[in-house]
Input
Amino acid sequence: MLEDRATAVSSPTQWPAAYPQGYAVVDVETTGLARHDRIISAAVYRLDARGEVEDHWYTLVNPERDPGPVWIHGLTSEVLEGAPLFADIAEEFAARLEGRVLVAHNAVFDWQMIAREYARAERRAPVRQRLCTIALSKELGLPLPNHKLESLAAHFGVVQQRAHHALDDARVLAEAFRPSLRAAAAGGVRLPLLECRALTEWSDGPVPRQSSGDGGGYGGYRPGSWRPSRKRPACPYPNPGRYEDGKPLKQGMRVAFSGDTSVERELLEDRATECGLHVASSISRLTSLLVTNDPDSGTSKTVKARQFGTPVVDEAAFGQLLRDVAPADE
Output
């Protein structure tokens, strides 16, 4: 178990009364980022009020479709063929979430995937609040080089053994969350809790074409062909201008990305393209939005964004915006 470094603190004797009574640290691996994508594995570490591990659980899930980017998560169609369907594990999953705050790294993504799976199963996930460890690390002012899970783990001396394996990612996050929670309690930091609204109905759209059978396909692509050789089709919508805070994104907006992302960059860019956005490789006066987890960095894109006054949002906020992209003007 993790030994706290000087960057963490021992458990304070006066624990904030407003803090939750328990947490469910969750990680899910999926076939992709779109609304029709499915969970293929899930892990939960249950923690008590002060972040101590109570137990853990892990399962594979048969997505009934192409497993997506196998080169990332390593789960082929053959491995998943005999796994239970989500409907078969929904009750046990729910029992481990019940009455707890869902904790995840880029929590909006994990929550969206979980909520969709429960809606497909005509059930409701028993989660009322979520906590994103990216948001918590910002509240604590942790000196992280980026917002990847591996950086948070390294800050607290947690050794990651199998990246993109749900059980190990959940373990790593649980061990990094404990000293983060204690530091927040000692400093009287208000936890960045957000409400979770469950879906009550669901209708699946068309699923991308499956691969030829080796389990390694994702919409016809193979590892190594994502960047730089792959070119996306031109965005069919005109650029409506810059993103305005408080308003939705609109199809045709030019979106650029800078720095590390907790979700694979290629998948995040593909999700933006699917929503009708123009993924730009550079910043210009026509850029509608820059997505970066480190707006104060000195990269050429962040420097140009400041010069041009380009709006900037972080990855978690961008994930929220992708949920409701407005149609292009006719």
Observations:
- The chain is about 30% helix and 15% strand.
- The longest helix spans residues 166-186.
- The radius of gyration is 20 Å.
- The beta strands are 22-30, 39-48, 53-60, 101-104, 129-132, 193-195, 254-258, 278-280, 289-292, 312-313.
